[in-house]
User: What shape does this take?
Amino acid sequence: MFVFSYFLIGPADVLDLDNIQVHHQSNVLDMEAVNSNATTTPQLNLTIELSTNQLIDPPTPLPKGYLVYSNHCRIVDLDPYKREMMRHFKRVAYKACKSQPPLTSIHYNATAQRYVLNIDAFALANAKKSSKLRCCYMGVERASEMDVNYTPCEKFKSGAQLANTTDSIIVKCKSEREQVYINGHPTIPERYAVRQRLEKWAHKDRGKRVPSVLMIGIDSISRVNLIRAMPKTAQYLYDNDWFELAGYNKIDDNTFPNIMALMVGYNLSTAMKHCSPYTINGLDKCDFLWKLFQRHGYVTAYGEDAIKINTFNYMKKGFQQPPVDHYLRPYLYAAEKQLGGNSVLGMPHCVGYATEAEHVYNYAQEFARRYHNDSFFGFFWTNTHSHSDISQTSSMDEYLRGYLQRLVDQGTMENSIVVFFSDHGLRFGPTRSTWSGHLEERLPFLFIWLPEFVRKAHPEFVEALRLNRNRLTTPYDLHLTLKHVLSLTGRVDSQEDLGGAKDCSQCQSLLLPVPLSRSCEDVGIEDHWCTCWAYDSVYKNSKIARQLAKRVVRYLNDYVSSFRNGSMAHLCQPLSLQSMSAAYKAHPNDDDPSHIEIYWLIFYTAPNKALYEATVRYNKLLPEDENLLVTGSVSRLNMYNGEADCMNDFTIKKYCYCKHKGG
Assistant: This one.
């Protein structure tokens, strides 16, 4: 077998580590507890041990400093503690939203098959004017994606049994005429139709063990920032034999296209055409993975925080009907309106007694607990603690490490395949114009957990996932992996019956060995998002750099002018090149013809003072009007708050500088 190691070096004040020891076992990384006053530089030494199973292409030694290394793709292993990133990073302490515990709580009574609302006696004893408290609860009912209705507030004393028609409640308590308490509780109520579906398919299974799927996603966290900002969580994953996919590369700019590739198998163009997110009922018609699992006997759930920027709602129509059996959005809509709280870096933070992210995590945990003995598919996503900078998510490190352990303690990991992942790294801000920030934005983290019964039944999956750690992989592959999981249940004839990933014919399940010879072109990653190249710096004000940047600006103006048949062009001022920030030229890979050069350009435009990043292919053999190809979309590296309010289309908002501010 092959054993190879590499080191990540960083300043001692960044990581709570004192000593790091290496165990030559599978994928495991050990970190000892840290003395916060340590002055030595910590070294993070990952050792990967791979069997040379003849059924799998034998791994080749990985050169130091690379995550993926082949003639077609070489992805650099970044130092998480490089100064260009650390000068913008500061560890943030977790702070509880309330100093006192909540007055009320809920629990599920399995005998009655109902949730029970209780007043906590200890909290009541410490409450002001507790002897005069009068409490009631009102049910939250979904009216639409952007509205809820409330049932009449029903009085209760020490407790109440909740109806199964209620998905969530808001509790209010008054003392005389003053409201002294308000809180919310989402539930996973028993539903007759869901129970019938589960029992029908369980009968067909004839005792066969069927894995559940739990997906826990966090917006805007690169693999490297997971290590930097959440070392305890990362440590936990390495220590407990989760499978890391270190070469996981995003396929497009922001959350929506990367999630659509994962959940539907579509790129942005296909998703816009077939899922019509701008039209009512468009997304309802789209064949999401949760629909596929639901059709094959699974109970489904979806929860996401930050209502205004939800993946399927930000500048989109969302869902006409609830997309899953248990849908958290109505509760969080009510909670944001009713419970009060605060915001951090422009994102909702505390909502009542917990952060909004904790509302999502708790809901996911309760969903998994409620359906522990059934087959479930849950998709849960948080934005609030990670969207705006590289530091804020560090406040959730201890919480998330403990959360993963709580899933173990309640037995979820025994029956579930768990996917812990992100969509991309941080997309804007001061780190983004650095080399590290450029790569981090394109390389989100991905870890997969296989329960023991799957590992024993399919040791080849374990072998493949260990091998695939250092292969180029994509959200399309993850899409096909989940279809592969469904095909294992015996509830479908074969994986082929489930279809592939429409926009990546060469993508595949990660439970099978991924070819080392993959290139970005093979797997639907355009040049602009590809991390497989090395770049050399070019003088930023060189003739070629400025000429190419001017042509990219012209491309942006033409794009805005022609978008939706020119119907929005009158809203935006034309842009011009203001200055160059940086320019780079790619080292060609074996597949690249010598007459084509790839440039990475970073430049400012006027009048909006926007900082853009573009990747272009320059063909020296073609005439000027044909020799430039802008690949992928052009990235906006700084914020555009307030200057594009006249534009309600997320596709071109980042290129628009409104002629009339304020809409």
Summary: The mean pLDDT is 90. DSSP finds 17 helices and 29 strands in the chain.
